[in-house]
Every structure is written in structure tokens, then in C-alpha cells.
Design a protein that fits this description.
This is MalT-like TPR region domain-containing protein. The protein has about 525 residues and is mostly helical. Among the domains are: about 120 residues, Tetratricopeptide repeat domain (Serine Threonine Protein Phosphatase 5, Tetratricopeptide repeat), CATH 1.25.40; about 160 residues, no CATH class. It has 24 helices and no strands. Helix 18 packs across helix 19.
């Protein structure tokens, strides 16, 4: 009973010291898309008893909820403290979301777009590393949107395509339509009209999954693309669809751009110029720039070169105004960030491959060592058995002679010893026979590269019987030679073969012959 109480006390101490995860946090995450409900639950958390990990998660959740409920945020210090903790102690899921929402707060609450992009890029890297599709979808939308400020069309297109891939992976039809619209818009802004048309028509095919806002943008872009291609009837058709859908904004100046394209296609240049000028009042940067480009083309067509030149200068000034040095630096920073991360990933993979190669080499080396050990063990076993047979034969002969001289009547014992003597003699004679055959092969300079370890040992044992003095000389001179090295000495010192003959018999290169001679030299006592 006393032991049980001690165990329970220890368990209580361990549980008490362990980091506790308040159950309210899980409930808040589940209600995060209903921020008012999440705020009520989060308010019930007693922050006095939170561990460092709990405080980090609390700071993250409080910032997210405050942002989603449109409450005032003085700064981003709370969520920055959470990021600092997660950078030290891991937990990529929470760390990635902390970077995501700090970027959102910095961009939409404090207008700090540069630092927001840096946070989004870190969140992107973590999401791709962990294959977090939900997070990838959010990050790609934000990065496509934020690059719009810098008019970084290649990056907008890249993240639009990434968003499309992610939405397909998530099987999110609404997000697919949105990403198709984004891809089409990006291609259109890069004057890749055929690609833009392909993507937007795929969006039209999936229009039943689009909300009213997306549907309005789809019809607008389809009408604009048809107008730019000179297909006035189709452009007019989708323009009417758009007006019916967005009839509450009948004076929307974006509508002037598409009719201007239509009038241009119909050859009514003066009316097109009037409509394009009215489109310049649009608050949308993209529409204003397109109106300027259209005006310069219309002035060219009407022969008004001076106005065309002035309009082109306005386009250049507009580009200079929007595409600032800071924006260019931000574009370069994003590219460098991607390059650095790709380099880290590449070197990480290379390091992993190097470790794998080293492990394989170590395994091969271990296999060779084990093989050599096993070979030597078999050779020693054969040699020991031969020595044992020789010793036992000598003992048996002595015992048999003593029994015969004494005349003792012990027929069974005599028969047993004679049978054992016969078996051991037969085994030795077999060994010597094999050794004789092997020695004959050497004399005839036949290749012995394929012979077994047993046959090699038989050759060495036979030579020990054949040349006992030379064998004893080698045993005194050398220490711990292998069977192969003894065979080398037989060919070199007894048969007097040159290096070329030895290399041919062993089926090795002459370099290996010199190498073996050097190793034997090192074995001298």
C-alpha cells in the first residue's frame, strides 16, 4: 500500500510539472472562423497559470481573434513574442500560422507591406515543407495579392498557378474558380491574351461554383478579352451579362473600357476615345493604365501623333510612379529569398545523400570485414582439424602397438581404434590428395582464382608436409600470414614464378602482386 502511494505521488508530481494545454485553445481553433464565439471562449482562459508554450499560443490566438473581430491592435508585439518562442522550440503548425497572421496584421492594419511579404514568404516555406495544403492556399492568395502592389506580374502569375494547384488538391471548387480568374487576369496583364482566354473560359465552365463577386469579375474579363480580340458581338453579350449581374453600379467607370474596345473594333474611333477618357476616372489602377494604352493606340489610328506621344509619356510616368525603387527592391528580395531556400533544401538533400552513401560504404566495408573474418575462421578450422587428425592418428597408432605387444584381449577396443584410425587416415589422405592436385595446378601455371577456401587450405597443408623445413622457416620469419599469402610465397619462393605469372594464376593485376608482397614484408617478425 505504501509503495502504491509513492507511485501515485510521483505521477502527480510529473503531471503537475508537465506543460498543460488549456482545453479552451482547442475550442478556439475550432471556432476561429466564428471570431465572436472564439473571443468569448478565449476570454475564459486564466493566463496566470499558462506555461511559456501556453502564453505563446494565447498571444497568437488573441491576435487572430482581435484582427477578425476588427478590434484595435496597437502593435504586433504579442504575436511577435509567439513567433520568437516557436522559432526557438519548433511546432511548425503554430509557427507557420503565427507568421501568416503577423503578415496579415502588418499589411492590413499597419500598412507595412514590405515586412508583411517577408512573413508571408516564411509561412510559404513552412507550408510547402510540411505539405500543409490549407495553409498553402491562404499564403498563395496573399502573396498574389501583395505582389499586385508592386506590379510584379511574374510573381502574381506564379502564385495564381500555385493557388490553382492547391485548390485542385483540396478539391475546393469555389477556390478553383477564383484561382482560374486570377491566372487569367495575370496572363491578360502580361498581354498573353490566348492563355488568359483559356483560363477564363475554364472559369466560365465552372461558374456555378462562383459567388456573385467572382461571377461579376469573370464576365467583366471575358467581355474585355473578346473586345481586345476584336469580337464585338461576343464582347457586347458578356458586357450585358455583367451589367445585369452588377446593375446596382450602373455608373461603374470600368464599363467604359470595354465599350471603348468594342467601338475601336467597329472602327468608331472618336466614340472609343470619349469612352476611354471616361474610363480614366476609374479608381482601379489596372483599368486606368489600360485606358491610357488604348487612348495612345486610338490617337495613332486617327493620325493624332502629338496626342499619341503625350499619352505614351503619361503611361511611362504612370509606370514610374507606381513601380518605385522600393517595389523593385521587394521583387528582388522575394527572388533572393526563394533562391536561398532552394539552396538550403538542395544542400540538405545533398547532405542526406552523402550520409546515405557513407552508410552504404560502411555497410560494404563491414560486409568485406565479416567475409574475411569468416574465411579466416574456416581456414583455421580446417587447419585445426588436420592437426587434430594428425595428432590423433599418432596416438591411435601408439595405443594399437601397445595393445598388440601386451597381448591384452580387448577386441572391441582394438576394432574401434582401427576404425577411427582408418577414418582419420582417409580424411587426411583426401586433404593431401586435394593439396597435391592444387600444387600440380600451380606448377602448370593454371588459374586458381575460383578455388574454394577449403582447396586453398589443402594446398597449404600439403605444402607443409611436402617442404617441412621451408614451412618452419616461414613460420619463424613471418607472423599471422593468411592462406592466400602462404600461396603467394609458394609461387614466389618455391616455384620461383615472376610477377606476371603470379598475376595470371591469381587473375589479378601486377599492382596487386606488388601490394601483396609489401604486406607480407610488413608481417616479418
Amino acid at each position: 500500500m505504501k509503495r502504491l502511494l509513492i507511485i501515485l505521488a510521483v505521477m502527480a508530481v510529473i503531471i503537475g510539472c508537465a506543460e498543460q494545454h488549456p482545453p479552451q485553445f482547442g475550442q478556439v481553433w475550432k471556432k476561429i472562423n466564428k471570431p465572436e464565439e472564439a473571443r468569448v471562449i478565449l476570454a475564459k482562459v486564466n493566463t496566470h497559470y499558462l506555461t511559456e508554450s501556453g502564453k505563446a499560443e494565447y498571444g497568437l490566438l488573441k491576435t487572430i481573434v482581435a484582427y477578425k473581430t476588427h478590434r484595435k491592435l496597437e502593435n504586433d508585439s504579442l504575436i511577435s513574442a509567439s513567433i520568437s518562442y516557436y522559432n526557438r522550440y519548433g511546432d511548425d503548425w503554430l509557427r507557420s500560422r503565427a507568421y501568416l497572421y503577423r503578415g496579415i496584421v502588418r499589411m492590413y492594419r499597419f500598412g507595412n507591406i514590405i515586412d508583411a511579404v517577408k512573413d508571408f514568404k516564411v509561412a510559404e516555406y513552412i507550408s510547402e515543407k510540411n505539405d500543409d495544403e490549407e495553409l498553402k492556399s491562404q499564403v498563395y492568395q496573399l502573396l498574389a495579392h501583395v505582389n499586385y502592389y508592386f506590379r510584379n506580374q511574374p510573381s502574381i502569375l506564379k502564385y495564381s498557378h500555385k493557388l490553382l494547384d492547391s485548390s485542385i488538391e483540396l478539391n475546393d471548387s469555389t477556390m478553383m474558380v477564383k484561382s482560374l480568374l486570377m491566372c487569367a487576369t495575370a496572363h491578360a496583364d502580361m498581354d498573353q491574351l490566348d492563355s488568359a482566354f483559356t483560363y477564363i473560359m475554364k472559369g466560365v465552365e465552372m461558374e456555378k461554383h462562383a459567388n456573385m463577386s467572382m461571377l461579376s469579375d469573370i464576365y467583366s474579363l471575358v467581355s474585355e478579352l473578346y473586345a481586345e480580340k476584336g469580337e464585338a458581338i461576343k464582347a457586347e453579350e458578356y458586357l450585358q451579362e455583367w451589367k445585369q449581374l452588377d446593375g446596382t453600379h450602373a455608373t461603374h467607370t470600368t464599363w467604359y473600357l470595354i465599350p471603348a474596345y468594342i467601338r475601336k473594333a467597329q472602327g468608331e474611333y472618336e466614340k472609343a476615345i470619349q469612352l476611354a477618357k471616361m474610363g480614366l476616372e476609374d479608381s482601379d489602377q489596372r483599368t486606368r493604365r489600360k485606358c491610357l494604352v488604348l487612348l495612345s493606340e486610338l490617337y495613332e489610328l486617327t493620325g493624332n501623333q502629338e496626342q499619341a506621344s503625350e499619352t505614351r509619356m503619361m503611361i511611362g510616368e504612370y509606370d514610374d510612379m507606381k513601380y518605385t525603387i522600393q517595389a523593385m527592391q521587394m521583387v528582388d528580395w522575394q527572388q533572393k529569398f526563394d533562391e536561398i531556400q532552394h539552396s538550403k533544401d538542395f544542400y540538405g538533400r545533398m547532405t542526406w545523400m552523402q550520409r546515405l552513401i557513407i552508410a552504404l560504404i560502411a555497410m560494404v566495408a563491414l560486409g568485406i570485414v565479416i567475409g574475411m573474418w569468416w574465411h579466416r575462421r574456416k581456414v583455421r578450422k580446417l587447419s585445426f582439424r588436420l592437426d587434430e587428425d594428425t595428432r590423433r592418428i599418432s596416438e591411435l597408432r601408439t595405443n594399437i602397438e601397445q595393445l598388440e605387444k601386451s597381448g591384452a584381449e580387448n577386441g572391441q577396443e582394438m576394432e574401434r581404434m582401427k576404425k577411427e584410425l582408418e577414418n582419420r587416415m582417409e580424411r587426411i589422405s583426401g586433404t593431401l590428395l586435394i593439396g597435391t592436385q592444387m600444387f600440380s595446378q600451380l606448377q602448370q601455371r593454371q588459374c586458381i582464382a575460383e578455388v574454394t577456401a577449403k582447396e586453398q587450405q589443402c594446398l597449404v597443408d600439403y605444402f607443409a608436409q611436402l617442404r617441412p623445413k621451408r614451412w618452419q622457416e616461414w613460420e619463424r620469419k613471418y607472423n599471422g600470414l593468411s592462406t592466400a599469402q602462404y600461396i603467394f610465397l609458394i609461387m614466389q619462393d618455391d616455384l620461383h614464378f615472376d610477377d606476371e605469372a603470379i598475376a595470371t594464376i591469381l587473375d589479378v593485376k601486377r599492382v596487386s602482386v606488388r601490394s601483396m608482397r609489401a604486406r607480407i614484408k610488413k608481417s616479418e617478425r
